[in-house]
Write a structure and sequence with these properties.
single chain; alpha+beta; 4-stranded antiparallel β-sheet; 5 helices; 4 strands; globular
Length: about 130
């Protein structure tokens, strides 16, 4: 789960950087999924800095599940460092432009500067289904 820049060109740059890092570790990025959100409960200031939230899907390397989880942990850290060095984050507001919320084959982490009662409403399309509840 990623927070990505609102600007489409910067978002694509971020995805390209992540894809290159993933490929350098032997993974193939299969695609990205836009995470559905409902921002109707957010205030004006939150709306101004709201990121685009996407989920990535990629192939595991032919190793054990434990090795795959460890690789994703490494990939998360390396992609953040590479993104910062590539200046994707240093313009227009800092590190919040590109942030890896979670990267795991077992757990999805929903994050946001939200009150607890706003979380389910904001992510309702994902969290409101029987399979997630």
């Amino acid at each position: 789960m990623f927070f990505l820049p609102a600007s489409e060109s910067r978002r694509e740059q971020s995805k390209i950087v992540f894809t290159k890092v993933a490929e350098s570790l032997g993974h193939t990025v299969l695609g990205w999924r836009m995470v559905p959100t409902d921002n109707s409960g957010l205030g004006k200031s939150a709306l101004q800095i709201e990121p685009v939230i996407e989920q990535v899907f990629f192939t595991p390397t032919p190793r054990s599940k434990a090795d795959f989880e460890q690789q994703m942990y490494i990939l998360r850290g390396v992609s953040m460092v590479v993104a910062i060095r590539a200046a994707l984050n240093l313009q227009h507001g800092g590190v919040r432009d590109f942030y890896t919320c979670s990267l795991s084959s077992r757990t999805v982490v929903y994050k946001g500067q939200l009150k607890p009662n706003q979380l389910k409403e904001y992510y309702y399309a994902d969290l409101g289904t029987e399979s997630m509840g």
